[in-house]
Amino acid sequence: MTEKRIVLGVTGGVAAYKACELVRLCVKAGIAVDVVMTQAGEHFVTAVTFQALSGRRVYTDLWDASIPNNMAHIELTRDATGIVVVPATADFMAKLVHGRADDLLSTLIVARQSTCPLLVAPAMNVEMWQNPATQRNAAQLRADGITLLGPGKGDQACGETGDGRMLEPEDIFRSIQALFSPKLLAGKRVLITAGPTQEPIDPVRVITNHSSGKMGFAIAAAARAAGAEVTLVCGPVTLPSPIGVSRVDVQTAREMFDAVKLHVGRSDVFIAVAAVADYFVVDSSKQKIKKDGSGKLLLELAENPDILAYVAALPGAPFCVGFAAESENLLEHAEAKRKRKKLPLLVANLAQEAFGADDNHIMLLDDAGTHTLPRAAKTELARYIVEKVASAIRRQP
Ligand code: C5P
User: What per-residue confidence (pLDDT) applies to 115?
Assistant: First the structure.
């Protein structure tokens, strides 16, 4: 078996200390890490720290005469699954934009093969990140096919707060793991709905449900990791977008329906994870409703469109996956739903166990029968569902 290996570039930002934790996570997962540091990076963490954590030599110098044939800038990346720069400073991003090659890290990046993915985790002060030059550079790097991991928002080492904070090592690690996922959905377009919908009663009140969006977001991330082009249509949730996924935010079921209709024509797979409200309030009030002393309030509700049933009935419909969150008689209700909506695959779970949690207990229902999975993290279940979808569409005529 060939070794799982990445090249980790460390440039000169205080977030370099988080790269240490990232190396530890990779090594624990059996991924070898060749660390390449810039001179500025060495001001923050020493090469010895990375050497101890990675268990390998650390590269810092383009002119290292101790390396046979001095071709580290070529050889280091050749069998690597990717290059990840953590942290990437504003200066290093500017350098990448121009293809500069004046130290080992920038040179090996310019010399990488086009098949070697480059992931970059920017980390800098909020003003540096928002500076038009940095924003131009970030846009150019994306246009060049480089994946930007973050940055996130939050407290910064300099004492200011805002965009520019590096993603946490666990988040970056997930993107590294994704580099090693089999590309089972390469070339496929996957459309996913996630989260709840909110149906306005008046400008300050809504009808909604407890869906957190975690399962749908996990499936979007897993489909992306499997090489799919993913569009995620989501109701109001507080989750960050999975990296590399195109996200469309909506509020109501009817808005979700419109967004799905807009994107579904291009899709090979449709996975409806959203907990869509069954009803909306007819003529929701433009002004906040006041108590009128009668002791009651009557709302007229009308049924929302069934987005999944609509997509499944389209001529040349994509491969459709439904979710059923039930509070009782799970299997019976789920199978009835699968038949009614004419779905090749349905995922069933108990609503009270699934909503908001990080793990879930699910059953898969298809023409072959029912398959119960052991309770597991939603991220792990998402990978399983994606594998299941990939093998089902491979079998399609
Ligand atoms: O709400 P219900 O139990 O019918 O949901 C089953 C499946 O149908 C889910 O996958 C859900 O996302 C989808 N659905 C939908 N549009 C609706 C209601 C449900 O797409 N209006």
Answer: 86
Q: What 3-state DSSP class applies to 47? A: helix
Domain boundaries, the chain: 4-180, 189-395
Select from 215, 308, 339, 365 the residue to mutate for testing ligand 1; criterion: most ligand atoms less than 8 Å from CB.
Answer: 308
pLDDT in tens, 256-279: 999 999 999 999 999 999 999 999
**Locate tokens 């496929």: which residue?**
188
Q: What angle is formed at CA 336 by the lines to CA 252 and CA 372, rounded to 5 degrees?
A: 95
Our answer on whether the CB atom of 276 is closer than 6 Å to any ligand 1 atom is: yes
Residue 29 has pLDDT above 70, yes or no: yes
Q: Give pTM, 2 decimals.
A: 0.82
Distance of CA 60 to the CA centre of its chain: 32
Q: Tell me, what DSSP letter sits at residue 375? A: P
Cβ contact 345:392 at 8 Å: yes
Among the atoms of ligand 1, which is closest to the Cα of residue 193? 12
CATH of region 4-180: 3.40.50.1950
Contacts of 132 (CB under 8 A, 6+ apart): none
What is the second-level CATH architecture of the domain 189-395? Answer: 3-Layer(aba) Sandwich (3.40)
Catalytic residues, by residue number, are 158
Q: Best substitution site from 254, 276, 345 to test ligand 1's pocket, by max atoms within 8 Å of Cβ?
A: 276
The answer to whether the CB of 325 falls within 8 A of the CB of 346 is no
Which amino acid would we find at residue 207?
I
Give the closest residue (by CA) to ligand 1 atom 5.
Answer: 324
> Does the beta carbon of 304 lie inside 6 Å of ligand 1?
yes
Same CATH topology for 4-180 and 189-395? yes
- Whether ligand 1 lies within 6 angstroms of the CB of 334 is answered as no
pLDDT in tens, 186-232: 999 999 999 999 999 999 999 999 999 999 999 999 999 999 999 99
